[in-house]
Amino acid sequence: MSKRTVSKEVYDIDGKPPFREAFPLAIQHVLAMFAGNVTVPIIVAGAIGAADERAFLIQCAMLVAGLATLLQVYRIGKMGAKLPIVMGTSFGFVPTSIAIGNAFGLSGLLGATLIGGIFEAFLGFFIKPLRKFFPPIVTGIVLLTIGLSLLPTGITYVAGGNGAEDFGGLNHLFLAAVVLITIVLLNQFAKGMAKMSAILIGIIVGYIVAIPMNMIDFSGVAQASWFGFPTPLKYGLTFHWEAISAMIVLYIVTAVETVGDISGITIGGADREATDEELSGGVIADGVASAVGSLFNALPNTSFSQNVGIVSFTKVMSTHVVKIGGIFLALSALVPKLGALIAAMPSSVLGGAAIVMFGSIAVMGIKLISSEPLGNREVLILSIALCLGFGFGTVDGALSAFPESVQNVFGGSGIVIGFLVATLLNAILPKEKEEKTHQKKYKKTAEHTA
User: Fold this and answer.
1) By the 8 A CB rule, do 381 and 424 touch?
2) Is residue 74 a contact partner of residue 323, using CB atoms and an 8 Å limit?
3) Strand partners, 302
4) How many domains does the chain have?
5) Which of 4, 136, 154, 185 has its CA 20 to 30 A from that of 385?
6) Left (φ > 0), alpha (ψ -120 to 50) or beta: where does 163 sit?
7) Of 294, 327, 346, at which residue does a domain stop?
8) Are residues 249 and 131 in the same domain?
9) What is the tally of helices (H) and strands (E) in the chain?
10) Do 244 and 393 fall within a single domain?
């Protein structure tokens, strides 16, 4: 396997590599996003007193993530970026979802998800005229902030995951190290599919090593049924302005993240900037997927940054690969036992892979920022936006003077602050005068040299 040459189709957006290559690469994507996708409904259901509904909500999250992924890779009209984008339930909505769920129940939460998704889809149609406000310095800062904001999450996984009784234990650190070392060795010294599937193989090795370490509980697999279909509109839909307005703000945030993720995929996988059609289609599909997903009892969906990291790491741009992953996700929702088997994976296994994936996202942000000359103006924008964005996103309580609703939007990852500051500075700081000054200095220097 390690000596076989990988077909060129895996690097082509429209390429269709043979199934023996495409399937493991697709499962690599699924394993990378699975824990994050199912963790959101688990957290929200437990926080709003609906713990008994967790298994059903996980099933819904898997189905909608699969369908949303397919919507992204199959461009239908203006919907879909037609890029290897993997969708899943968004962590960014967790605090607000808990607040809405406690106030209005699951029906109010899903109703706000529906309206917010429609709003984001509408917003997607205006990406092209707004594109001039998103030069590489702005989108690069967003992507860099996304990567940096995910690093603590990756280390949390490495240490055993939130709530682990032995958080930070040597068993978790050892398991994450096994996964990371496996990935590095395969990426550097293997060839063909072994190199391309380094993350998948690393996760599988970690899973197997965890079994004799008694770090996997298979009781959930035994209890899960073999077949089941998520009932649409099980909780109904109700609409409350307070809930809807809060969701709309967060959908603006997730649109910004999606722009950053799409830019990361094209820069990292194809070494080019994203087109207007790709950005617009991606944001529209994000909104439509979330709106339709609410009908199937799923919380807001968005592009998953860890899968952007995989594309950047492997350079696999084939949408055919991600299509298979989307189909697998949707089908696994119909076989709860399969989902339970993947869900049993220790967080530290995913953590070992997350170090590579999340770090790759930050590096792609740096690459995008440096794709154009960095003058004094660009350095100033980068310095202020990165410091305020990442700083406020990582220091708890730094925005405590503001209402909780403001903290939920601007705190957390800090992506919104970084984006707003970068966009504002890029719009108001003079650029033409600086360029002329540099041109004059260059001309004088050239004349002097001559």
Assistant:
1) no
2) yes
3) 88
4) 2
5) 154
6) left
7) 346
8) yes
9) 19, 2
10) no
Do 119 and 39 share a domain, yes or no? yes
Same domain for 246 and 381, yes or no, is: no
- Residue 158 located in a structural domain: no
Mark whether 284 and 408 lie in a shared domain: no
Residue 411 gets which letter from DSSP? S
* Total-model pTM: 0.68
Largest CA distance in the chain: 81
CA distances for 76 relative to 71, 82, 131, 282, angstroms: 8, 9, 22, 11
> Partners of 301 in the beta sheet?
89
Q: Number of C-alpha atoms within 13 angstroms, CB side, residue 426? A: 22
Q: Which two tokens stand for residue 198?
A: 């380094």
Q: Residue 363 domain-assigned?
A: no
With beta carbons less than 8 A apart as the criterion, state whether 240 and 108 touch: yes
DSSP per residue, 203-265: HHHHHHHHTTTT----HHHHHS-S---PPTTSS-----HHHHHHHHHHHHHHHHHHHHHHHHH
DSSP 108-122: HHHHHHHHHHHHHHH
How many C-beta neighbours within 10 Å does residue 391 have?
A: 13
Same domain, 82 and 221: yes
Q: What is the length of the chain? A: 450
Neighbour tally for 217: CB within 10 Å:
10
Asked if the structure places residue 320 within a domain, the reply is yes
Q: Are residues 122 and 256 in the same domain?
A: yes
The separation between CA 258 and the C-alpha centre of its own chain, rounded to angstroms, equals 8
Per-residue pLDDT of the chain (450 residues; tens, 9 = 90+): 344 456 677 778 888 888 888 888 888 888 777 766 776 787 677 667 776 677 788 889 989 999 999 999 888 888 988 898 889 888 767 767 877 888 888 999 999 999 999 999 999 998 877 777 777 788 788 778 777 777 777 788 888 877 777 888 888 999 999 989 998 898 788 776 677 677 778 888 888 888 888 887 777 777 777 887 888 999 999 998 878 887 887 788 788 778 878 888 888 777 888 888 999 999 999 999 999 999 999 999 988 877 777 887 778 888 888 899 999 888 888 887 776 776 677 878 878 887 877 777 777 778 778 877 888 888 898 899 888 887 887 777 777 788 776 666 665 557 778 888 888 898 888 875 545 554 454 344 444 444
Please tell me whether residues 56 and 135 are part of one structural domain. Answer: yes
- What is the domain range of residue 409? 373-445
Return phi, psi of residue 318, to 5°.
-60, 120
